[in-house]
């Protein structure tokens, strides 16, 4: 009886050790690393699956892939056999091959807001008090003034004569206001400012914004482009700018303020919104700015169309970025993809990227403002764009997968699969 108990304990111990050790065995790790579903482009084929490539390259591997259909179709099934026994199946969906031209150019950005953006309250001095008519009317910072007396507002200059007339006639202004997704009307009474001797509404407003960034890509067929990799927000309200229209122009980098721990650096550049226009802006989203180019543009480093990598195809390891540190010259620099997250749904922070190039670190200290949108290239594929810098470590920051920027640009790489 005692002998049987000892045997049970020994068998249990052996089973426990087997369960602990089993996941660490190379064949088991290979098996677990093989996905059951995979999407890739026809040109890349089944070899794009990292696990399959590793297994094919491993000496003496007893794991083999057998294709269930002849040639490349819109989908395939692959079976993995060990000693003639099928152990796992992977379904592979093929997308039509698609290539874009990488950017890297420094661009100037000029946005015109949809309506007029309220960025602050202003106190109007009367004979007896100081008051903000706009604040009294319930208008908040971040609100967008869409209409005044039923007329659409397109720029700040539209307001001045209407405010003057209403004040002199002692009439209220009817404002149509957008706050988030809500649109409502409110009445505002212009107040005479005894100091400036003008009628005022007590609001600081803005109808445009400007800045610099980096071109990420453009589609040579449609001329659709994507840049920046993140939304443009108003500097005062920190809210995304709803655009009416906008333009991108060529930009000349004049100097760089290096980044340091706790202090992000920035590119300093000059551009003219009236000259050197290269395209229009039709969309400002969490994934960047998008629109159409007037004509093809070049970077002088890599002007050939490149295939793209889907989010699950991006690997940790060496990569390159294209960006400008002086004038308009696009240069290629070494970086490392520290981590990447395969994403089934669009998300802005898909990668962590670290600058490793000594020359770029010397010039900028790492990632700086204005570098946002710099394309990331890995193994000959465009995989995404630099978007944000870590404040406490300027050598590193986030990147967005190119898959989501293409989607925001209105380029549907999944069209055949969806149909």
Describe the protein.
The protein has 419 residues and is an alpha+beta fold. It has 3 domains: 2-95, no CATH class; 98-117 and 205-419, Thrombin, subunit H (Beta Barrel); 123-201, Pdz3 Domain. The protein is built from 8 helices and 29 strands. Strands 6-15-16-21-20-17 form a 6-stranded antiparallel beta barrel. The chain has a 6-stranded antiparallel barrel with strand order 23-24-25-29-28-27. Strands 1-4-3-2 form a 4-stranded mixed beta sheet. The longest helix is centred in the first third of the chain and has 20 residues, at 2-21. It is elongated, with a radius of gyration of 29 Å. The N and C termini lie far apart (68 Å). The relative contact order is 0.14. Mean pLDDT is 84; it is low at 54-72.
CATH architecture of the largest domain: Beta Barrel
Q: Walk across the major sheet and give the strand order.
A: 6-15-16-21-20-17
Tally of individual domains: 3
Globally, the shape reads elongated
Strand portion: 35-45%
Low-confidence stretches: 54-72
Helix amount: 10-25%
- Compute the number of strand runs: 29
Any idea of the CATH class of the largest domain?
Mainly Beta
Please state the CA-atom Rg, rounded to the nearest Å: 29 Å
> Could you please say which CATH topology of the largest domain applies here?
Thrombin, subunit H
Count up the helices. Answer: 8
Question: Helix/strand/pairing class, anyone?
Answer: alpha+beta
Sheet with most strands? 6 strands, antiparallel, barrel
Cα(first) to Cα(last) distance is 68 Å
pLDDT average, as an integer?
Answer: 84
Can you lay out the helices and strands and say which pair or pack?
Blueprint: H1 2-21, H2 26-33, E1 37-41, H3 50-57, E2 63-67, E3 75-82, E4 85-95, E5 99-102, E6 106-121, E7 124-125, E8 130-131, H4 133-136, E9 144-148, E10 151-152, H5 159-168, E11 173-179, E12 182-188, E13 191-193, E14 198-200, E15 203-218, E16 224-227, E17 243-250, E18 252-257, E19 265-270, E20 277-285, E21 288-293, E22 306-307, E23 317-324, E24 330-340, E25 351-355, H6 358-364, E26 368-369, E27 375-378, E28 381-390, E29 393-401, H7 402-408, H8 415-418
Parallel strand pairs: 1-4, 19-26
Antiparallel strand pairs: 2-3, 3-4, 5-15, 5-22, 6-9, 6-15, 6-17, 7-8, 9-10, 9-11, 11-12, 13-14, 15-16, 16-21, 17-20, 18-19, 20-21, 23-24, 23-27, 24-25, 25-29, 27-28, 28-29
């Amino acid at each position: 009886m005692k002998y049987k108990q000892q045997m049970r304990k020994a068998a249990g111990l052996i089973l426990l050790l087997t369960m602990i050790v089993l996941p660490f065995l190379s064949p088991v790790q290979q098996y677990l690393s093989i996905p059951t579903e995979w999407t890739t482009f026809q040109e890349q084929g089944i070899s794009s699956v990292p696990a399959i490539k590793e297994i094919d390259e491993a000496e003496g591997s007893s794991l083999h892939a057998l294709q269930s259909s002849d040639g490349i179709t819109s989908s395939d099934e692959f079976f993995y056999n060990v000693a003639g026994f099928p152990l796992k199946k992977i379904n592979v969906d093929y997308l039509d091959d698609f290539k874009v031209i990488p950017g890297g150019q420094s661009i100037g950005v000029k946005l015109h807001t949809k309506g007029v953006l309220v960025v602050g309250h202003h106190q109007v001095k009367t004979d007896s008090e100081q008051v903000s008519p706009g604040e009294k009317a319930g208008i908040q910072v971040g609100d967008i003034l869409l209409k005044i007396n039923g007329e659409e507002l397109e720029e700040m200059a539209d307001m001045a004569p209407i405010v003057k007339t209403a004040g002199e006639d002692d009439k209220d202004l009817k404002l149509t206001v957008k706050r988030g997704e809500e649109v409502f009307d409110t009445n505002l009474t212009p107040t005479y400012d005894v100091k400036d001797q003008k009628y005022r509404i007590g609001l600081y407003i803005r109808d445009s914004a400007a800045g610099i960034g980096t071109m990420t890509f453009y589609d040579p067929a449609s001329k659709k482009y994507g840049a920046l990799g993140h939304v443009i927000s108003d500097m005062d309200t920190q809210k995304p700018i709803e655009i009416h229209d906008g333009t991108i122009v060529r930009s000349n980098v004049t100097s760089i303020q290096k980044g340091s721990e706790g202090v992000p650096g920035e590119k300093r550049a000059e551009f003219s919104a009236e000259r050197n226009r290269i395209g229009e802006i039709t969309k400002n989203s969490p994934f960047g700015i998008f629109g159409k180019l007037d004509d093809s543009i070049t970077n002088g480093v890599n002007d050939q169309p490149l295939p793209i990598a889907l989010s699950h195809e991006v690997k940790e390891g060496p990569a390159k970025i294209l960006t400008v540190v002086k004038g308009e010259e696009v240069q290629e620099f070494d970086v490392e993809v520290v981590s990447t997250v395969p994403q089934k749904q669009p998300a802005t922070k898909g990668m962590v990227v670290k600058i490793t190039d000594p020359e770029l670190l010397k010039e900028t200290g790492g990632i700086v403002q204005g570098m946002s949108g710099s394309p990331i290239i890995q193994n000959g594929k465009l995989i995404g764009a630099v978007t944000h810098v870590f404040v406490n470590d300027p050598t590193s920051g986030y990147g967005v997968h190119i898959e989501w920027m293409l989607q925001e640009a209105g380029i549907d790489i999944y069209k055949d699969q969806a149909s």
